[in-house]
């Protein structure tokens, strides 16, 4: 792991997002301050591409992120599942926990897939919000606390994977 991380933040319709970028790539996206315990440096050039792409995504102008991801904080099977999600579930699509387990090689049961989604260090970019239960939304640990499922639903509606609810405003999340 590099000795430092550059951090930046962006106001979005689903709350303020914080990003952390090492010299390898994006290592953390969160609604709280960065979860990466490295020396923080002031390097807006390093975070600019990520923040620009996130802004484009929330404006509906970007459907795929093409930035390097620093996977070093993930374990082998966790990384395999997250990379499978990243490469096989596109904007506007969703997949069930069980389907992602199969796509990932059946090494992790559906319940384990849920745990891996909850520990995803780079949500939005690696779209864990697109993984749903066979009988509904499932869970989501993104957001600012108690609004996780509302954030997941908002993201899926914005991407067109769910039909909009009555009164849905794409400009902001309503709790």
UniProtKB/TrEMBL annotation:
GO terms for molecular function: methylated-DNA-[protein]-cysteine S-methyltransferase activity. InterPro entries: MethylDNA_cys_MeTrfase_AS (IPR001497), MethylDNA_cys_MeTrfase_DNA-bd (IPR014048), MethylDNA_cys_MeTrfase_DNAb (IPR036217), MethylG_MeTrfase_N (IPR008332), MGMT_N_sf (IPR036631), WH-like_DNA-bd_sf (IPR036388). Keywords: DNA damage, DNA repair, Methyltransferase, Transferase. One of its GO terms (biological process) is DNA repair. It is an enzyme of class 2 (transferase). It comes from the Bacteria. PANTHER family: METHYLATED-DNA--PROTEIN-CYSTEINE METHYLTRANSFERASE (PTHR10815). This is methylated-DNA--[protein]-cysteine S-methyltransferase.
